[in-house]
Amino acid sequence: MTVEDPVEYELKGVTQVAVDQRIGRTFASVLRSFLRQDPDVLLVGEIRDLETAEICIRASLTGHLVLSTLHTNDATGSVVRLLDMNVPPYLLASSLSIVCSQRLLRRLCPSCCIPDEDAHRIADEYGLADEIHTTPKTSSGCDRCKGTGVIGRVGIFETLVISPELEDAIRRKASTSELEIIANREGLIPLIDQGLALVNSGMVQLNEVLVQVLEASAIGRSS
């Protein structure tokens, strides 16, 4: 069962409900109806408020698998976002299992790749000079990519697995920086590190990583 706003893709064998605020069909009201039917899996298009978050957590604590999305800059930011919604820390620590943050980066066309002469200078301006170990690539455009310089996209994914130590940190409402320190110590690979690895491999342009990861995060934090 899914509740979405709007339903973008019709899935065979899945009961999909579109949110309609005009008639009171909200995420929370639909979720309450779903839980009466005892589903195994719930997909909530987005957690936007405390009421929806509380219902998702209640469903999780009673044995349902709940999948949803949040608008945050990174994986640890999702924990802080839910706490900012006034979700009780002890409930969040007990119900949250895993958070995955993602970005889609434009993949350079392999047929027209050329050295990016400005990459090292730009990396130095962002304090990333030590992270660039090769000559980064850019593209000039060709018939294969129809002059765009890119073909398709490649995903980078930052995965936060909620460990016992992170549970304790959530219960005491630890700061984002403390959560990040614990997560990195336990093996989380930040989005920026994954993006720079793709830059070093020649798969994506440095500017693409800076815009999609660093600058997007800075805008999100300031707003």
Architecture overview:
With 223 residues, the protein is of the alpha/beta class. 40% of the residues lie in helices and 19% in strands. The protein has nine helices and eight strands. Helix 1 (27-35) runs parallel beside helix 2, helix 6 (164-171) packs antiparallel against helix 7 and helix 8 (191-200) packs antiparallel against helix 9. It is globular, with a radius of gyration of 21 Å. The chain starts with a strand and ends with a helix.
Rg: 21 Å
Give the helix proportion (percent range).
40-55%
Termini separation: 33 Å
Category from helices, strands and their pairing: alpha/beta
| Helical segment count | 9
Number of E-state strands: 8
Please render the helix and strand layout as text.
Blueprint (H helix, E strand, L loop, with lengths): L1 E3 L11 E3 L8 H9 L5 E4 L5 H12 L3 E4 L6 H10 L4 H7 L2 E11 L4 E3 L3 H7 L11 E3 L10 E12 L2 H8 L4 H10 L5 H10 L5 H17 L1
Parallel strand pairs: 1-2, 1-3, 3-4
Antiparallel strand pairs: 5-8, 6-7
Helix pairs in contact: 1-2, 2-4, 3-7, 4-6, 6-7, 8-9
